[in-house]
Amino acid sequence: MKYCRFLADGQPTYGRIEGNSVVARASSFEGLANGVPMSLALDGVELLAPVEPSKILCVGRNYRDHAAEMGNDVPKEPLLFLKPPSALLAPGGTIWKPAITQRLDFEGELGIVIGKRASGIGPDEDVRGYIRGYTIVNDVTMRDIQKADGQWTRGKGFDTSCPVGPLVTDEVDPLQGSITVETLLNGEVRQHGETGDFIFPIPELLRYITAVMTLEPGDLIPTGTPAGVGPMQSGDAVEVRIQGIGSLKNVIG
Ligand code: MG
Fold it and tell me: How remote is the CA of residue 217 from the centroid of ligand 1, in Å?
């Protein structure tokens, strides 16, 4: 199933997607299976972030070529950090460039959306049962602030630093085969990666996280970015494309 969240009569609403249309709506994800039938063109609705996470648990340096371009060694264990839910930004929304930064970077990433409470996932357990689907994330970063602070809360946790969407789908399976992640700045490809190149594959990430932290339905896990990160300026258009999911487009304010 593919789904989005959108505004219906001013109310945040979940919508099931078929083709290019929203065909059913409900007040919760769980309600979508028996949602109210409707028919609206997907490009005619006001999209919201498609997830309502209790936390956004990000993975840093999960591609060798990106670790290298930042001058870092390949990590021996996954590198985790949090963004607050207040960082979420809808598809099409304007990314804020805070006055304190001289260097605002894009980081296109595959996002895992959790479907079932997960704690202590076992070594032989199939992680698919905990995954609702996949989406697209831009892990927007004030690179100068990230480096100056030493930890990443301000540099990666500011308002609008987590554009996500436009939809969540379980119709792609990066556990089965590699999928392509690309970022375009003003229409020009700047990042091109394959999830098959992850240093830590998805099952390993979920086991590592749930060894210490309970994941809840709707939680979002951006899985790291490939090489090619770079700066954005006010007025730029940034787009993250993921094979089988779609395209997340935002502009810089
Ligand atoms: Mg990142």
Answer: 22
Gap from CA of 110 to ligand 1 centroid (Å): 10
CB atoms within 10 A of CB 211: 10
Quick one: tokens of 157? 């946790």
* Ligand 1 centre distance from Cα of residue 176 (Å): 23
Which tokens belong to 195?
A: 């999830």
CA–centroid distance, 33 to ligand 1, in Å, is: 33
pTM score, whole prediction: 0.97
Domain boundary assignment for the chain: 2-47, 49-252
Can you give the pLDDT at residue 107? 98
CA of 194 to the centre of ligand 1 (A): 15
pLDDT tens readout for residues 70-129? 888 888 999 999 999 999 999 999 999 999 999 999 999 999 999 999 999 999 999 999
213 Cβ neighbours under 8 A, 6+ residues apart: 57, 119
Q: Tell me the sheet residues that pair with 113.
A: 133, 220
Task: Domain 49-252: give its CATH code.
Answer: 3.90.850.10
34 C-alpha to ligand 1 centroid (Å): 36
3-state class of 185 per DSSP?
strand
